[in-house]
Every structure is written in C-alpha cells, then in structure tokens.
Design a protein that fits this description.
Layout (H helix, E strand, L loop, with lengths): L23 H26 L3 H29 L4 H19 L1 H10 L6 H24 L4 H22 L5 H23 L8 H34 L3 H21 L4 H7 L4 H30 L5 H28 L4 H22 L4 H8 L1 H27 L3
Helix pairs in contact: 1-2, 1-3, 1-4, 1-8, 1-11, 2-3, 2-4, 2-5, 2-11, 3-5, 5-6, 6-7, 8-9, 8-10, 8-11, 9-11, 9-14, 9-15, 11-12, 12-13, 12-14, 12-15, 13-14, 13-15
C-alpha cells in the first residue's frame, strides 16, 4: 500500500507489536555511523603507530562514547515513538547531519589530545548541538501527544537540554586536557543518569525485539570497520609491493577475526531475555557502548597491522599484536558479561572458555615476543573467538538454553 507521510499522533508504539523490525530510515541513519566509526578507528591507529598510545586510547574512548551515545539516544526514542511522518523524518535527517558534523570534529579532537594543550571539541560539540535540538524537539512532541508517558518524555527533554548546555560550555573552557576530560566524565555521567531517571518516572514503550535487532545491526556496522579498514589500508601496500605473504595473511586474519567476532555476538538470543526482563535494559544498553568500542578498536588494531606491513609503524611486532589482541579479549569478555547480567547466572563451561580464550591471546603475544612474524601471530589471535564458537556449538548452547529458560520463567 502506498501512503503519504502525513502527521501522525505520537501515542507510543506497542511494545508487544508483532514482527517489529528496523525501518529503512533507521538503516539510513546508521550509515552515518559508518563514517564516524571509520574516522575514530583511523585516528586511533594513526596515534598508535607513531607511539602516542596513551593519547590515542584516551581520545578514542571519549570519541566512541560520543558516537555511541548519539546512536543510543536516537535508537531508544525511535523504538518508542517512530511515527514515520514527515516531521519525524525531517528531525531524523537533522540528527544525521549532526552525526556527520560530529564525525568531522573527531580529527581535531584527537589532535588536541595528542598535543596536550587543551581539548578542541568545537566541531564535535556543534554536531551534538544539532542532534540535541532535534532530539529535544522529538521528546517535547511526544510529551504533548502522549499524556500517559508525559512525565518521562519531559524528563528526557529537560536532562538532554541541561547537559547540552554543559557540552556547549566546554567549547569555551581552555583548561589543561586533564581538567577538560574530567568535566567530560561528569557530563557523560549526567547523560547516562537521564534515561534512568526518565524510565523510573513511568517509562517509555520501547520494543525489546526491536532494540535487540538495532544493537546487533550497529555491531555489524562496527565489525565492518575491521574488514573495510584492513582492505583499504592494504590497498596501498599491494599497489606498491604486490601481494606479499604478510599482506595475504593479514587479509585472512582480518576477515576471519571479524567473522568469528560476529558469530560470538549472536550466540545468545538477547531479544527474548529483554522482552521477559525489561529491567535488564540499562546494563544491556550501557555495556554495549564498551562492546562497540572494542569492536572498532579491533579494526583500528588491524589498521596498525597494515601500517606495520607497510613499514610505517613504531609499534613493532609485539605492540602490533597487542593492538589487536587486547580489544578482541575485551570484546569477548564483555559478551560473556552481558550474557551473565541477562541470565543472572554463571556457568563453569563459560569460565573454561574464557580461560582458553585468554590462553590463545597470550600465546599470540608470546609468539610475537620470540620473533614469529606479525601476520602469523594475528592468525593465532583469530582463533580466540573460535574458542567460544566451538564451545557453544558443541555444548554451550544447551547450557545457555537451560539458563535462559530459567531466567524467563523466574518471575522474581
């Protein structure tokens, strides 16, 4: 059926709506985060290969929080109040513009952290302003048209507006980097407190299966950075030196690692758990920011490997392997953490799988230490997610199914 996108009342979507899936507009919106993640990974890898590890990691963590938080704000609102009328569509376009502005602000932000004088977040904050104007307008519209959830919607609008004033203020603070970043931490905490406060004032009608799908789609977008970034970085090497053994092995490692991390992400049906235990939404939603950061950092690590093959890195073999192994280990640990928080139980099998995963990563680093080539070490790192994949395919799926069944049936 073809219909016009005329105004529709924001009364809230049905949280039990059947066959609720991501909309084409949401998928379009997500494309802007391909750019943001790509720039963050590129800037991070650049600082790593020139030896500025501390500055690179600091800038990367703050940058990925900014990007992920922008996505989370849109996604949870859309899950509750997607009317798909012309106002909603234009407001979403405005938020997309804000994301792109934010992405353009990442290079000067990374550079300012590297130089250590003051934080240059002018363009980054401008992107936030654009997004927040649109988001506050959406929440005020929902508050006006959905009396049942008005208190929550007004709380969202108030907190977003208040914290945004703080972000704008940071543009004019030319304090040392440490002080500026401490202010950022306080503002980030205020940002994350807002949804908790709002949802405890009546809540909003978000859809569990829709949210789970949206998070999984962003995880796939972040994982794509590992493949696309590696191939793009290797293109210059292949053009100049041809298909060397290290170049071929690096492509295999990057693709295999990305595929393994994708498989690990989908071993647990989070949608069913969220539907039955809506109170788990905050740990699920917030810990995922670290998951996305670990995925993008893995892509950045693969970028550093490409720089190493090209002879443009100061990290050395061990540093390069570390740059990939550490985020992979963090990612897998976070997936187990999310699983444990959702089912509220732990399994001895999972502990063994985590130990084996850690052992694989340690072996990769030790191989680098004794002089094994970087590309072969990264192939060993690729085996890390395979430990969980094999473990769940052989026996873990039965353990998980039993734990999920108990958690869903538990009414306490």
């Amino acid at each position: 059926m073809v219909r016009a996108h005329r105004l529709r009342r924001m009364t809230g979507r049905d949280p039990h709506e059947q066959h609720r899936v991501a909309t084409p507009l949401e998928l379009l919106f997500d494309l802007t985060f391909v750019i943001a993640f790509g720039i963050a990974a590129s800037e991070f890898s650049h600082l790593l290969v020139i030896g500025h590890v501390g500055a690179g990691l600091t800038a990367f963590l703050f940058a990925t929080f900014a990007v992920c938080w922008a996505w989370i704000n849109f996604t949870w609102f859309a899950s509750a109040y997607d009317t798909d009328d012309w106002i909603y569509r234009l407001m979403t376009m405005m938020q997309m513009v804000g994301v792109l502005i934010l992405a353009l602000g990442l290079p000067p932000f990374f550079a300012s952290i590297e130089h250590g004088e003051h934080v240059d977040n002018t363009v980054l904050a401008a992107g936030y302003v654009v997004m927040r104007i649109a988001l506050v307008g959406q929440w005020l519209r929902a508050a006006h048209q959905d009396p049942e959830h008005r208190a929550s919607c007004l709380t969202y609008a108030t907190v977003v507006s208040a914290v945004q004033v703080g972000w704008i203020g940071t543009i004019f603070v030319h304090a040392p980097v440490v002080i500026s970043l401490a202010i950022w931490v306080l503002l980030a905490c205020a940002e994350m407190f807002g949804p908790w406060l709002a949802e405890n004032r009546g809540g909003t009608p978000w859809h569990a299966h829709h949210i789970a799908e949206r998070y999984s789609l962003l995880a796939i977008i972040a994982l794509g950075e590992g493949v696309v970034g590696t191939v793009a970085s290797l293109n210059a090497i292949v053009s100049e030196h041809g298909w060397t053994t290290d170049a071929i092995l690096l492509v295999i490692a990057g693709t295999g690692l990305t595929f393994g991390m994708w498989w690990v992400y989908f071993v647990v049906p989070t949608a069913d758990l969220l539907h039955a235990r809506r109170e788990a939404s905050f740990p699920f939603g917030y810990v995922h920011m670290a998951v996305f950061a670990a995925i993008v950092a893995t892509g950045a690590g693969l970028h550093t490997a490409a720089y190493y093959v090209e002879g443009q890195s100061e990290l050395g073999v061990m540093g390069t392997v570390f740059a990939v192994a550490v985020p992979v280990g963090v990612y897998i640990a976070l997936i187990y953490l999310i699983y444990g928080m959702l089912v509220r139980s732990w399994d001895v099998l999972h502990l063994w799988l985590l130990v084996l995963t850690a052992a694989v990563l340690v072996i990769a680093v030790l191989l680098a230490w004794v002089g094994v080539s970087m590309a072969l070490c990264l192939l060993v790192v690729t085996l890390a997610p395979a430990v969980t994949v094999v473990g769940f395919e052989v026996a873990g799926h039965q353990h998980a199914q039993a734990a999920i069944g108990r958690r869903i049936a538990d009414k306490s």
